[in-house]
Amino acid sequence: MTRVERATESKPLDPHSADGDHLASLEAQLKEAIVEIAELRARDALKTQFLANISHDLRTPLTAVITHAEILRDGILGDLAPRQMESVRGIISGGRQLLNQVGEILTYARGAANQLTLVCTEFAIRETLEQVSTLNESLLKKKKLHLAVDVAADVPHIVADREKIAHVVGNLLGNAIEFTPTDGHIWLRARRGAGHDAECVVVEVADSGVGISPEHHDLIFREFAQVDSTPSRSHHGTGLGLTIARKLVELHNGRIWVESDLGEGSRFFFTVPFDQPE
Length: 278
Fold this sequence. Notes:
Layout (H helix, E strand, L loop, with lengths): L2 H6 L9 H56 L8 H31 L8 E3 L1 H11 L1 H6 L3 E6 L6 E3 L1 H17 L6 E10 L4 E9 L33 H11 L4 E5 L5 E8 L5
Parallel strand pairs: 2-4
Antiparallel strand pairs: 1-3, 4-5, 5-7, 6-7
Helix pairs in contact: 2-3, 3-7, 4-6, 6-7
C-alpha cells in the first residue's frame, strides 16, 4: 500500500467520537423530519377530504334554496309585488354565485386528491365555444360587452372531456366579462397548433379589459392567490378558478398561459391535443 493510499484509507467511525455523536444526532433529526412529513401529508389528505365532503353537502341545500326562489319568481305560487320580485331575484343571483364557488371548491378538492378523471368523446370545439357564450349572454348584455367567436375552418373535431373543456372556457370567459369595462370587447378563438408531442387545438379567450401586470402572470394560476387580496377589492371569488383550469388542461396533456399587460387587456391560451392517449 502506498503512502497516499494509507493516508486516504477510510477508517470506521467511532460511535463514541465527536463525529459519531454528530452523525447520531443527524439521524435522529432525519427520523423526526420523516415522521413530521408523514403527519403533514395525513393532515393534508384529511383537509382535502373535508373540503370535498362539506362542498358536496352544501350543494343540496343551496340548490333547494335556488329552486324555491325560482318557483316564487315564476309566479307558480302567486304573483309577487315588484319589490318582492326584486328580492327573490337577488336570492337567486346570490345563490347561484355561492353554488358556483362551492362547485369550484369541490372540483379543487377532487383534483388535489387526484380524483378527477376524463370522460372523452369526440366533439367540435366550435359548438363548445358557442354553448359557453350562450350561457353567458345575460352577463354580456348587462355590461354591454361585444363577443365574437372565431374558429378556423381547418380545426377538426377533438377527442376530450367536453364538460371539462367547457368548464375551462367558461372560467376564462367569466373572468373576461368581470374584468372588462362596459362596451368592451371579448373574443373566443380556436386554431390548429402544435403541442409538445402532437397536433392540438389552441383556444384563446381575449378581452379589452384592465389587463394583468407581467409580474402577476404566474401568481394568478396559484391556488387561493389573487392579485388584489385586500378586503375592499371589487372582484371577489375563491381564487381557485385558474388553478382548476390549469389542472383540467394538464389532465388533457395540454398547457395554459396568459399574455397581458396592465391596461392593455388579456389573452389567455390553452391547448388540447386532438386525441387523448388511452
